[in-house]
Design a protein that fits this description.
The chain is α+β, with helices and mostly antiparallel strands and 100 residues long. The chain has a domain of 68 residues. It contains three helices and six strands, in the order ββββαβααβ. Strands 1, 2, 3, 4, 5 and 6 form a six-stranded antiparallel β-sheet that branches.
């Protein structure tokens, strides 16, 4: 993971939809969406606003109570990982296991 990467998520029931916000050296940003497409933005603020408009929340800002409100435990969340975007593509939508 790049030091300038931030993971964001949205949920539908027990399905987690991931997005990666990457801040570039030039001050611009890009978001890798759940379809594996990279969307460019003129700034980090613009990218964050777009994610929030789409009802995504930052993983870094999520606490146990927020996670419970969404129907899962925070320790169930494992952001996508891999050396390139192609490896991430298949992990951008994750179905959490059923609760027991």
């Amino acid at each position: 993971m790049n030091d300038n990467d931030q993971w964001w998520l949205a949920t539908i029931g027990r399905t987690v939809i991931w997005a990666r916000l990457r801040v570039l050296d030039a001050g611009t940003a890009e978001v890798l969406d759940s379809d594996g497409v990279t969307q460019p933005y003129d700034s980090e603020d613009t990218a964050r606003a777009a994610l929030m408009d789409a009802e995504f929340v930052s993983l870094d800002g999520l606490d146990d109570e927020d996670a419970r409100g969404r129907g899962f435990a925070i320790d169930e969340l494992v952001p996508p990982h891999g050396d390139d975007d192609e490896l991430l593509r298949g992990q951008m939508v994750q179905k959490l296991s059923s609760r027991h």
